[in-house]
Amino acid sequence: MSRFSGVLQLTDLDDFITPSQECIKPVQIQKTKTSTGAKIRIQEDGDYYQVEEDGSAFKLQKVEITLSDCLACSGCITSAESVLVTQQSQEELIRVFEENKALKLAGKTSEAKLIIVSISIQPILSLAVRYNLTPNECAARLAQYFKQLGADLVVDMTIADDFALLESQREFVRRYRSTENDGVKNVLPMLASSCPGWVCYAEKTHGSYILPYISTTKSPQQIMGSIIKHWVGHNLGDRPIYHVTVMPCYDKKLEAAREDFFDVNTDSREVDCVITAIELEQMLDKDRISLDSLAESTFSEPWLIKQEPTEVKPNLTCHLGSGSGGYSDHIFKYAAKELFGVEGVNLEYKTLRNQDFKEVILEKDSKVLLRFAIANGFRNIQNLVQKLKRGKSTYHYVEVMACPAGCLNGGAQVRPKDGVTVKELSMQLEKMYEKLPIKSPEENVLVKDLYENWLNGQESDKCQSVLHTQYHEVQKNTNALNIKW
Amino acid sequence: MSTLELVQTLKKDNGRVWNVSWHPKGESFASCSEDKSIRIWAKDGSKYTNKVVLTDGHKRTIREVAWSPCGDFLASASFDATTCVWDKKNGEFTCNVTLEGHENEVKSVAYSSNGLHLATCSRDKSVWVWEVAGEDEYDCVAVLNSHTQDVKKIVWHPSKEILASASYDNTVKLFKDDVALGEWVNSNTLHGHESTVWSIDFDATGERIASVSDDKTLKIWKEYPPGNPEGIPTEDKESAWKCVCTISGHHMRTIYDVTWCPLTGLIATACGDDAIRIFKEENGCDPNAPTFNLVATVERAHSQDVNCVSWNPKTPGLLLSCSDDAEIKVWKFKE
């Protein structure tokens, strides 16, 4: 379990949200009634047995805390809940792979799950640097590694990034117009929703005050979850799917465990297991595999209706703007055009208090039309939230990410080698990202196809229900027992 | 024979008085208490009287109050997880800024010597540095998560932008702004106490720190800058800090507070055994192994735990104390 904690503290950019002092989640224990007090015996292995009057004994249930417990509790506001994360571990992933292999070997192919692994760009770059590979080489070898483990399909998550950007762009324009035209309050600034650390923090500490500002557009991970479970699952004959995502931070595990992302139709989560770059590095180390020694495999494209998935060589692209997804840049450009008819704007960010807080404005006749910002890291989140609370925010949109330097420096990316600082490594990753060919989400024909064939067109009710989500205030419970002078 | 003479006893509050803080001019002081009030006291003739009561700032116990160096602002740290900044712009003291962000109880608050920074610390284990960015504007510039437990107390260096913190994790830590990195960093960790470090104070030069602990000892730490003549090794061009003196055997219970007088060099401690003790450094002793002698003890200084002691910044030997017994006392040290 220790690998889930402490890792975040290895950074010298001391700006992550840390776990709070102690877990205060009250847990319910099923108790059987006894007339007298029960006798409990503790075995050498640490198991607890209740001893009955007749001398018989039965094992007592252990109390386990799940990710869902964490999300429903206000005890911590951590971005790396270092609690007992059992459903989202490497062990669990390996167990599912092995179980599936065993079923296939036993000829019970129909009972086996279809295992699909979706890989996001940030961990690919992180591992590419770690193993000295180009991004495409790294992606192809990761595909091979997962297939060796037992994955059926390995897919590129860019399609979900594109959906998230397109939905965010339209959502922003809707919010802007409703403020301008109808005077609707509490919808601007729109705050990014793709960082679960930030969303979790907002829900637990700022509740109803901040939540209305957070974009309802699902994060790429959860959009990917919908695509895989709803659309691809349906396309591939409604087989049960086990969906794994490869992400740059632990917080994504929390996000995947949210009840909002539990699908009743398939009776499963949209994302069953999240695995991070640093965990992949550990898995490879444990298996004594160097990524650069593996053969190159392909990414699958199971997107088109009633077609067998096509296999393609990984051909990674990047989005304009930050390595966290480029939300600020894309929404800015789209809004400038849609709202003010200004095309081809050149985005020049001005760094404010520190490297992790910068803003960009669109001006016309010395009037500010749009004011956007990128705020990364805990202290900038603090200053942003306090500004909002005091009514002093002048922003229309803020790309908020809990990790300093954003997702390329995600809390579960591979740590820098000795002698390399976190800052140097994240700059290296940024450079690597910027060198990838830029592709705009509007160009993605597959996305267009899915809007038409799956979602009944853009702005449809189905888009709203599949691609958007909601947030919940977590009530604070002050427990008098926790007070320490 | 030195003595600590009681000058005056003040009582207004209904609960324990947590902290007393002299105004930088030394003529008045602020106190805060469990009953969620802040009081400002000043002299009427020869006696201190309560001039102002501030009650509407916090929802829970107020743990500490601190004046800005200019004396125009008063910051209060509360168990309601907020820090308030009060000022007299409108003639009366009003709370114009509420700093939120700590997850739970704020334990201590202090302004840096030039008034440009404010620091707070909390049971949430973090130390925050705020920049005074303008009229009623405080920007968070650092959230320092170096401590592994509850942070009890923070104090600033008397002249530099160096911050010291004391914690339930038994350590004292120093923080400063690393200009090259553009970040506040933990530059030193002082290990030595065997239990919670409750309070710390710099001496007048800032080259030494006194710390007091639940382990019933008072420790003196000395800074050894790079290239020091003693040959104490330093790392990365950072000063090393070494414990040069441990004073034990005097305190019967947890020591809750320490104050190092910038005018006289006297150290006073506030103890859970209800006593106040005064220590004086022996003249001419070895700076690398100084001797501090107990020169005065008031055994039953209060009827319950003494929470805080504070030397007046302008009048040598004038000391304030406050206690769980709801009283504030004014003392005069006489050689």
Automatic annotation (TrEMBL), chain A:
<dbReference type="GO" id="GO:0051539">
    <property type="term" value="F:4 iron, 4 sulfur cluster binding"/>
</dbReference>
<keyword id="KW-0408">Iron</keyword>
<dbReference type="Pfam" id="PF02256">
    <property type="entry name" value="Fe_hyd_SSU"/>
</dbReference>
<keyword id="KW-0479">Metal-binding</keyword>
<dbReference type="InterPro" id="IPR003149">
    <property type="entry name" value="Fe_hydrogenase_ssu"/>
</dbReference>
<feature type="domain" description="Iron hydrogenase small subunit">
    <location>
        <begin position="419"/>
        <end position="475"/>
    </location>
</feature>
<comment type="similarity">
    <text>Belongs to the NARF family.</text>
</comment>
<protein>
    <recommendedName>
        <fullName>Iron hydrogenase small subunit domain-containing protein</fullName>
    </recommendedName>
</protein>
<comment type="function">
    <text>Component of the cytosolic iron-sulfur (Fe/S) protein assembly machinery. Required for maturation of extramitochondrial Fe/S proteins.</text>
</comment>
<keyword id="KW-0004">4Fe-4S</keyword>
<keyword id="KW-0411">Iron-sulfur</keyword>
<dbReference type="InterPro" id="IPR009016">
    <property type="entry name" value="Fe_hydrogenase"/>
</dbReference>
<dbReference type="InterPro" id="IPR004108">
    <property type="entry name" value="Fe_hydrogenase_lsu_C"/>
</dbReference>
<dbReference type="InterPro" id="IPR050340">
    <property type="entry name" value="Cytosolic_Fe-S_CAF"/>
</dbReference>
<dbReference type="Pfam" id="PF02906">
    <property type="entry name" value="Fe_hyd_lg_C"/>
</dbReference>
Automatic annotation (TrEMBL), chain B:
<feature type="repeat" description="WD">
    <location>
        <begin position="299"/>
        <end position="335"/>
    </location>
</feature>
<feature type="repeat" description="WD">
    <location>
        <begin position="10"/>
        <end position="41"/>
    </location>
</feature>
<comment type="function">
    <text>Essential component of the cytosolic iron-sulfur (Fe/S) protein assembly machinery. Required for the maturation of extramitochondrial Fe/S proteins.</text>
</comment>
<feature type="repeat" description="WD">
    <location>
        <begin position="144"/>
        <end position="176"/>
    </location>
</feature>
<keyword id="KW-0677">Repeat</keyword>
<feature type="repeat" description="WD">
    <location>
        <begin position="190"/>
        <end position="222"/>
    </location>
</feature>
<comment type="similarity">
    <text>Belongs to the WD repeat CIA1 family.</text>
</comment>
<feature type="repeat" description="WD">
    <location>
        <begin position="55"/>
        <end position="96"/>
    </location>
</feature>
<dbReference type="InterPro" id="IPR028608">
    <property type="entry name" value="CIAO1/Cia1"/>
</dbReference>
<dbReference type="Pfam" id="PF00400">
    <property type="entry name" value="WD40"/>
</dbReference>
<dbReference type="InterPro" id="IPR019775">
    <property type="entry name" value="WD40_repeat_CS"/>
</dbReference>
<comment type="function">
    <text>Key component of the cytosolic iron-sulfur protein assembly (CIA) complex, a multiprotein complex that mediates the incorporation of iron-sulfur cluster into extramitochondrial Fe/S proteins. As a CIA complex component, interacts specifically with CIAO2A or CIAO2B and MMS19 to assist different branches of iron-sulfur protein assembly, depending of its interactors. The complex CIAO1:CIAO2B:MMS19 binds to and facilitates the assembly of most cytosolic-nuclear Fe/S proteins. CIAO1:CIAO2A specifically matures ACO1 and stabilizes IREB2.</text>
</comment>
<dbReference type="InterPro" id="IPR015943">
    <property type="entry name" value="WD40/YVTN_repeat-like_dom_sf"/>
</dbReference>
<feature type="repeat" description="WD">
    <location>
        <begin position="99"/>
        <end position="132"/>
    </location>
</feature>
<dbReference type="GO" id="GO:0016226">
    <property type="term" value="P:iron-sulfur cluster assembly"/>
</dbReference>
<dbReference type="InterPro" id="IPR036322">
    <property type="entry name" value="WD40_repeat_dom_sf"/>
</dbReference>
<dbReference type="GO" id="GO:0097361">
    <property type="term" value="C:cytosolic [4Fe-4S] assembly targeting complex"/>
</dbReference>
<dbReference type="InterPro" id="IPR001680">
    <property type="entry name" value="WD40_rpt"/>
</dbReference>
<keyword id="KW-0853">WD repeat</keyword>
<protein>
    <recommendedName>
        <fullName>Probable cytosolic iron-sulfur protein assembly protein Ciao1</fullName>
    </recommendedName>
</protein>
